[in-house]
Amino acid sequence: PLVSMKEMLEKGKENGYAVGQFNINNLEYVQAILQAAEEEKSPVILGVSEGAGKYMGGFNVVVAMVKSLMESYGTPVPVAIHLDHGSSFQKCAEAIHAGFTSVMIDGSHSPIEENIAVTGKVVELAQIHGVSVEAEVGTVGGEEDGVIGGIKYADLEECQRLVKEAEIDCLAPALGSVHGEYQGEPNLGFKEMEEILNAVNVPLVLHGGTGIPTKDIQKAISLGTAKINVNTENQLAQTRAVRKTLEEKPNLYDPRKYLGPGTEAIKETVKGKMREFGSSNQA
Ligand code: G3H
Ligand code: ZN
């Protein structure tokens, strides 16, 4: 069933596992991720960036595609459709009205007062629709959808204020993680994560899940991280498989035959993450 993230994240936080957010780009991603979730008996979050939403034909198309695939699969596990890095109240409202069950309002690039104000506005609308809300403090490094930023650690007091004043369901405190591949080992601020966990009473979100070693994933989960976002790793796995197939059979032209192996690769990657995050058999 399609649900908000609220309950799945609270259960994850309570029981020491994290639910993966896997970003979708087209039909094949939705197929691969839903199949992985069903086979692993795992709750799952389908992440949709504004750019990917536009690419797929708009938020309405995304919701129709996901709902209809879930119906034809008879998907038995909880699934959330979540707007990733929503850039404005407008975009979040558009996603909510299209039927998304969860949104992230990313006001992290504005001063905290503005971040709290826009997040509070989104929460007010979201609550009417039973939609969960994620918000961010600090800056995740690297690039997403063309927006490039340096790393800025989340400020403890700002985290406290955002959670308290805007009543969000989960918080993404940027603590050294990066979108895309890491240059060398990631250096996550676990001390800060612990302080934030103790100061706010909501599940934490880790962005930039690609390339984080298992020991860091486990440490983050032990410090209240109940949602981990993965995007690049699926894209790399898919592209690697498609490239290999086309190299081996340069005369292929039927998209089903070269995209199929890419879809399998996404599915295997997602299943591996679900096991690593501990969400397998938790649906
Ligand atoms: O919001 C999405 C992500 O944080 C994904 O990051 O592409 O590094 O896995 P990633
Ligand atoms: Zn992110």
From TrEMBL:
Cofactor(s) listed in the protein's UniProt record: Zn(2+)
Classification via InterPro entries: Aldolase_TIM (IPR013785), Class_II_FBP_aldolase (IPR050246), FBA_II (IPR000771), Fruc_bis_ald_class-2 (IPR011289)
Keywords: Lyase, Metal-binding, Zinc
The keyword DNA-binding is annotated on this UniProt entry: no
Pfam families associated with the record: F_bP_aldolase
PANTHER family assigned to the protein according to its UniProt record, in alphabetical order: D-TAGATOSE-1,6-BISPHOSPHATE ALDOLASE, D-TAGATOSE-1,6-BISPHOSPHATE ALDOLASE SUBUNIT GATY-RELATED
Entry protein name: Fructose-bisphosphate aldolase
Organism: Oceanobacillus kimchii
